[in-house]
Amino acid sequence: MSEEVMTMTEPRPAKQRGAGSGATDAALLFDEPGPRGRILITIGSVVAVLGIVALVAAGLYQLSLSGQLDYPKWRYFLGQSVVSQLLEAAGTTLTLGGVAAVFTFPLGIALGWLRLLDNRPIRWLIGIWIDAMRAVPMLLLIYFFQLVVPSLVGGSYFWMLVLPIIMCTSATTAEVFRSGVRALDRGQTEAAWALGMSPSLTMRLILAPQALRLMLPTLITQMVTIIKGTTLAYALFYADLLYGGAQIIGQAKKDVHLSVFFQGYVIIAVLYIIVNWSLGVLARYIESRTR
Question: What is the pTM of this model?
């Protein structure tokens, strides 16, 4: 009798989430659609894809009617001089972004480190600076460096653009570093202090290396923000990729009486997409390697 009771009261075995079971995280959150639901989802997906294709086709048709897809307008950007100008402008953009990154990341880490100190006045002052730089538009800082700073200390247009980028993005980097340190297990800090390590030594040898490892993909993603920030060079008439492209468009209108406004900005956008997509791929690769 007891054996029968034990047999009847045994818990039902849990379903295993094996490779062949078909269980997914979505199945745990939502009800699994039945046959009718799957049919409706399929129909909706097909309709959405057809709608997108129709919109793209309509847009291309309108562009064709207006002559924007004519080959001579695109062929203009295959000229040797035009390609050289685009590559030179792209090199300027990468130089601006590279120099800004070289200063941004160490400064941001230093600011984040200082904001974690136990010294309240320093932590308070650094907090005000970081919050201010995160709140002020970068373009406003560029105008400040363009209109005010030259009358005081002088300076080149290169640094008038790079310094505002450094000031704004380093503040964001500081918050990323501070969040990375706070995400670490508090027990590591307590164990280090119990061994007699000072707070600065604990940060330098234990916390900072782990935080940098965690935030490395985010730092690379910050490069995308820096590269996009260089487009504000247009306000200083500095020959970056955006301003250089605008000059090429004006040159085509003046020299060969060819309107390539649409084509020029499409090519510029594609170049930015290539650069930023490459940085995104690098960030995902490093993230997969550091897990």
Answer: 0.74
